[in-house]
Design brief:
CAP_sf; signal; CRISP-related; 44% helix; SCP domain-containing protein; two-stranded antiparallel sheet; alpha+beta; globular; four-stranded mixed β-sheet; 5 helices
């Protein structure tokens, strides 16, 4: 178990270092203020989306008595890189890195907020039966159980508009859930 934890910590460290390098190169101050208002508007929209995503997740977690998630910029950077790799096909295919739990949603069109993108995962909870640890939904409840997985503590997501004009949301969770046959909470 400790080697698994060491692997998780190593991945998080690499993500943190990559994020620091990326943000320092993107935020270099060249003395110009062109686009300041546009950048401020983008940052405000991003902050609102983060708040919406955390709210949807944490309300569902509170309902079943598990602690809230915190936002991870490093995990969000990974989610963003993966989401951008799907821009051409907007496919909700699992990323290759299995150190994270992962949920995805594709919405038609570009005008989706964080709440409307993540709410379908929480809505799966109506099909989940805790006593039997089973799900009656045709597509399963894995997205819901990842949202409320008791050991998960961190969330990072990215929302992009694909070439098709549709919206893709990728959310990654650490530590991941939905392993073994255990109950989520």
């Amino acid at each position: 178990m400790s080697s698994r934890l060491n692997s998780y910590l190593a991945i998080l460290l690499l993500l943190a270092l990559a994020s620091l390098c990326e943000s320092s190169s993107l935020n270099a101050d060249d003395g110009s203020d062109n686009g300041t208002d546009l950048d401020a508007a983008r940052r405000a929209r991003a902050a609102a989306t983060i708040d919406e995503l955390l709210s949807v997740h944490n309300e569902a977690r509170q309902a079943v008595g598990v602690p809230p998630l915190t936002w991870s910029a490093q995990i969000a950077a990974y989610a963003k890189n993966y989401a951008q790799s799907r821009r051409g096909d907007c496919a909700s295919r699992r990323s290759p890195l299995f150190y994270f739990g992962e949920n995805m949603f594709v919405g038609k069109g570009r005008h989706w907020n964080g709440t409307s993108l993540a709410s379908p995962w929480v809505e799966e909870g109506r099909w989940y039966d805790y006593e039997t640890n089973s799900c009656a939904a045709p597509d399963g409840c894995a997205r819901y159980t990842q949202v409320v997985w008791r050991n998960t503590t961190q969330l990072g997501c990215a929302r992009i508009v694909c070439d098709s004009g549709d919206t893709l949301l990728v959310c990654d969770y650490f530590p991941p859930g939905n392993y073994g046959r255990g109950r989520p909470y």
